[in-house]
Protein 1
Amino acid sequence: MSGSPVPPDAPGRRNPAGPSAALAAASAHDLRGEPIDMSALAAELGVGRATLYRWVGSREQLLGSVLAEMTERTYQVAVRDVGGRGAERILTVLERFMSAVVTAAPLKAFTEREPRLFIRLATMPGTIEDRATELLTRELQAEIDRGALCVPLPTRTLAQAIVRVADSFMYAHYLGGNRPEIDQALEVVQLLLRPCAPGAAASGRESSGPAGR
């Protein structure tokens, strides 16, 4: 005797881990340059749409999380084997990161499909900016702790400012410009970073105290 298929979310059906599984599946589609359809994603995960939305929020929130994960993966590659110290190191990491972002095939596919959504997600305060700011805050703080960098602002405030500067130049071609303007972004960031003069390391650490981390 054959029975009807067990519907998604039915009692006794073994569901995946939850939000992490949804994010992993969505990220896999994004890396292949495929659009993310919530109905298809729910079916792939073996759950109903209501469960998927409960896990990840809206489609826009899920896409923000996917792009934030891509941001971190790209950063981890950009920072690998980077030498130097202080402002030199930070600028090298930023140049490698921005160059990788603007040439990433999945990102190009995304921007061709949904350019306005991408710009909103990438340049407004939210998940992507928060992740990039967190990564850069750690990088700046490491150089401050080494005595290689003095900063005029709390570390997180400076990191957020650098992220916003980088975004505005990196995505200039989506905002009416002709091309990404990475060199200009680096010139602006260089003005915000100062090498420590002898005996000035302490002031750098004070500016990045608990209120700025």
Note: Confidence is low (pLDDT under 50) at residues 1-13, 201-213.
Protein 2
Amino acid sequence: MSLLKVEGISKSFGGLKAVDNISFEVKEGTIHALIGPNGAGKTTLVNMISGIYKIDSGDIYFKNEKITNIPTHQLVNKHIMRTFQNLEICENMTVMENVLLGFNIKMNKSLLKCSFQFESILDDEEKYTHIALSHLKRVGLEEYAYTLCSQLSYGILKKVEIVRALAINPKLLLLDEPVAGLNSTETSEIAQIIKEISQEGVTVLLIEHDMKMIMNISDEITVMNFGVKLAQGIPKEISSNKDVIKAYLGGGTLHA
């Protein structure tokens, strides 16, 4: 069953067509990779899915519900969450404070409640702090819970972003280059986290350039080039696809 369905979506910036009539489906409970050379339109496509960019034409469906051009905050309420290519971390806050930001839409904090139900606010904070700690523990970050993010490495902060995205219990998690700039050990750790997230029932749409990681953890891959869909299939099919190899290397073999 498809959780996400993209039907003929397009996006232009002035005279440049960044995404041109792209269609694909993401099956529920899978890791679906979106790959392609730099400038292929991958991040633009994810920005359209996540409500950051308006779609010029075409439609997007989530659980058979049309979500075309729905604002980002409404998509979060539907349990669609994403991370970004560049870190979006508040470095003057602790890891815990950053993760708790992910619970913002759940926390009981209206002005009326803040005025008359102070105990309820404290209960919420205690509840979500406990949940945040459990998320941090599962990725080995509990020791950094109360450390300022400015004092932590780039690799650790990449994990913090993923943990924060898990706060709303997403049904669909969009990851934009989660291992960019990481070493091989850090990459392996993030790959394992993504696999565990998927095994727990979260559907993942993943943009990444690390082909070894993509081939090892993806259930299905969609390839983009110059804004159009070049190919789609399982990793074995994609790694031997002549058009994909040409787009990446100009020929030869695409190594996993």
Note: Residues 107 and 124 are 6 Å apart (CA to CA).
Protein 3
Amino acid sequence: MRLEDKVAIITGAGSGMGRVAAQMFAAEGAKVVVAEFDERGGTETERLVADAGGEASYIKTDVSREGDARAMVDHAVKRFGRVDVLYNNAGIMPEADHSVTDTDVAVWDQVMAVNLRGVFLGCKYAIPRMVEQGSGSVINISSFVAILGCSVPQDAYTASKGAVLSLTRSLAVQFGPNGVRSNAICPGPIETPLLMDWLLKDEAAKQLRLARNPTGRFGKPEEIVNAAVYLASDESRWTNGAQFVIDGGITVNYF
């Protein structure tokens, strides 16, 4: 198994891509810390992993709170003895996030708190553990919108994901000499509740986004997590500071 005996913290693992990641990591032999704010979702992921023969432990986590981030890492070390992977997956995309000209400051701050501060805090407490071990993999979920503009903007989300890319590069340079690799994945639109609940309410928005994708469909969560499994595994031991754009070809399509 590709992740045998590795300990992985996955934030936002109570639903969507995070839950799929927890299941796929566990199937590859990882011991998974399910870091999730929603208790029902987090405990359900823990149960699904256990039912499939894997090992997982849930901890209620608000990634935007420093105390929760510290407790999340401490929980991993206490329960499983180490931290090999930090998978910063948790993120929000509120409907009220629009252009800078009409987005409320409270919405902007909320998005930055989860999408950017959450990554910062997870890294703040997980990376020192990895440095002590002499190895580790940080996987940050950014987005394809971090590298191109959008005529239908969600500017807080876009800015937060662009900052995650920049932070990832800085982490790669700082901690690569200590055996800690940092990489980012930039997914295109993925069929998760976060996106689909919104697009199902707005058929025009759905068709607009599909028209710009050469594959003619949204991505599947496992198509992103497959890349994360590679980054978590020893197969990627010389992959550091990379950004994997997995979007069906949206970012190369000009018309």
Note: DSSP finds eight helices and seven strands in the chain.
Protein 4
Amino acid sequence: MSATAETLAISTETREFLSRTHKLFINGQWVDATSGETLGIIDPATEAQISEIQLASTDDVDKAVIAAQAAFKGEWSKINSHQRTKLMLKLADLIDENIQTLAELEVLDNGLPMMLAEYTISGYASDFIRYYAGWCTKIHGDTIPVSPAGVANGESLTYTRREPVGVVGAIIPWNAPIAMLALKLAPALATGCTMVIKPAEITPLTALKVMELVKEAGIPDGVVNLVPGYGEVAGAAISSHPDIKKVSFTGSTAVGQKIVEAALGNLKKVSLELGGKSPVVVFPDADIEAVTMGAIRAAFFLQGQNCMAGTRLFVHQDIFDQVIQNVAGVASQMKIGPGLDPSSQLGPLISADQRSRVMSYVQAGKDEGAELICGGNQLDRKGFFMEPTLFTHAHQDVKIAREEIFGPVLFAQPFGDSDLETIAAEANKSIYGLSGSVWTKDIAVGLKMASLIDSGQVSVNCHAAVDPAIPFGGNKMSGWGREFGQEGLEPYLKTKATTVLFSQPPF
């Protein structure tokens, strides 16, 4: 741990956790990686190394899968649904009890403001686990009446069982580490699956801490295994492993496509939550103050490093200038700083490479003739900081309007008195279809426009309304399947139909 990390205003427990060289968590034990490789973990707000992890090899992934298989066929299979509920509720309680350390680790690892870290833990991660704990006892099959012409001729019983698919591989992104971990861990445990989890190698700290809590909660050894490592090594091994029956991935569309190719070997189930370029459509009767703050949150939440980000702002021409002036005014006054500073509203980007990538889009916007309204600069100080940025242009023919930037860059465009279908066609002019929002006081217009936007999730007078019970996922190049809610259980389950013949049919 660096001298900088030692002087941070963090708890003793967090400081002690950072001081370790972190191993892999396999079969309930902390074990050394066979690769012998380590990686320093960097605080994006200071550029200082704050901790070090060991990196998993393909052999390590194999060991984790073997442990997960043994647990799936052994002790975990003997634990009933009521017991699974109790174990999950215990884990959720432990997460809440450790919120200070978890929040500090999330801030140091990822850079997000402390307020958001605390929210994603207590207001999301633990509640998400509790929500799915409630599903453990409600997963069931059906009895099915067969047709008179069926082979059993009515003198039979046919029923279905919902069974866990087996060992699940989960690949976690760096933009919301603990939230994404909970999102994949909870439905897997609820359905009775076991897991091999690969956190993003640059943000593994909260996942490592949660493994301690998994052990403390009494979840049997081998049910949850953690293999931090590079995507091209550990992630690729998970995606192609013949004994992993399902992969859940959140990340870029390009990597998602590679995972699909790797999964072909054993035709494993794949669920993907990928990129986005979500539209925010504002009609002239909308509450401008609400729109202003809604657009700010939609575009700049997590420094714009989130797949749901509302990065394409469509505003009716009658209020366009006012909305742009308001958004620029708020964005320009946002406090940019380290997440541990309680006054910070916008933290750093995750890395120097990510900031360079985002800044290249800013330059592309300028080069292609978009008008820079505010921001557009990186900060000349330690940390990977940049200003929230707003561009406008009359058309979506510029790169910043088409491609996912994954940074605090908002593109705004006016529209006129067109019919809703024409406006929706502009909003849908994207390869992505993850989220979106409509802002209006006319509920009929709001509902109609929401129905026309081709996204897996659309909100009216808010953006990215998420809740454990609301299904979430993308259309088009934004992914496959749904997470959250009852639908989030489906990828972890398979259906078995059984028919019992009572008497031979007369022929």
Note: The chain has two domains: 3-274+481-493, 279-468.
